[in-house]
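Sequence in, structure out. Go.
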Amino acid sequence: MPHQSAIDYLRQAISVSKKSREHGNTPFGAILVDSEGTVILEQENIEITQSNCTGHAETTLMEAASQRYSKSFLWNCTLYTTAEPCAMCSGAIYWGNVGKVVYGISEERLLTLTGDNEQNPTFNLPCREVFRKGQKQITVVGPFPELEDEIVAVHEGYWK
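Output:
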């Protein structure tokens, strides 16, 4: 995957994160791209409530992808996301069978934005570590420092 293509897809995920914030949700976005380079799904975060604690963009995207596509098809797809997938989202990606993940900012960088906000009690557990404990060789690419300012800008003022 050429570096510029990853940047372009991550910018599409950033656009989705902006929509998420405009809709009153946490500012995260993810897209799923097939092996031909076509964006087949996009997902913003959905409202986290007491009855739905799993509304992260990546987990929700994987739920939809798993209903529409076979595991063999998904293995050849790439999930692009504005922030490194948390442990829950990494599990959804693993079980859904997506073979590659590309993220903009690290979970560690995200923690500097969210602090101890109860909406995002961030783990200090990189997705690479979660995937390494499994039985699949999921490729992970990220972070992309050249996109950090664009991603962080969507979060500005949200976590206070």
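Check: The first strand starts at residue 29 and ends at 33. The mean pLDDT is 92.
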